[in-house]
Amino acid sequence: MLKIDMAEYYAKRAAVYEDIYSAAERQDDLLTLQVRVQEILEGHDVLEVGCGTGFWTEQIAATANSVLATDVNPEMMKLAQAKNFPADKVQFAIADVFNLQFDPQPAQPFTAVFLGFLWSHIGRQDQSKLLAHLREKLGADILLVMIDNSYVDGSSTVIARTDEYGNTYQHRRLPGQPNGDRYEIMKNFPTDSNLRKRLAPDTRDLRILRLEYYWMLNCKLK
Question: Where does the Methyltransferase domain lie (predicted)?
Fold first, then answer.
């Protein structure tokens, strides 16, 4: 059975989600990303969108002034909250990336927003909408930082299909369930030129770091 329910897939995978960071061949890339995230977000008041289990929340909180970590998935959020971050520095909230509402409002305005492995799940037809929503909620000149996967033959799950917008999809099963339900997950792997084309109208000072297994970008919202 093929299921199209990304929220359910990640909820069921929450307990083992961080296993993806244990692959030996990815350690050099991950160390580079961790160092760069801490350098770029040092001293910032950060909104993290799609925090998942809090793996990247830990990296951000190491140098940021404050972090509001948000996710739409309560199962993921529970694992992040269980890591016992200092309450005076890291707070959590359930929030949809396309409907960011905060109650109560943060004590200080955000100076940066971080999207970890979220851009690849946003349809190409909705990416400009997302950037516009972030600009509306956070204001201009906010630092935007994103990290996500590069496609690597033999390592990445193969692409199962491409839709009319150019979005690509993978068919995945839950870890430990080789005969269980298959889930169709949107997972885009943009090139540097695609990222520049998509972000140019809404951002400035765009910089991209392309690694073997991951990419990272930082820019300012216009």
Answer: 46-137
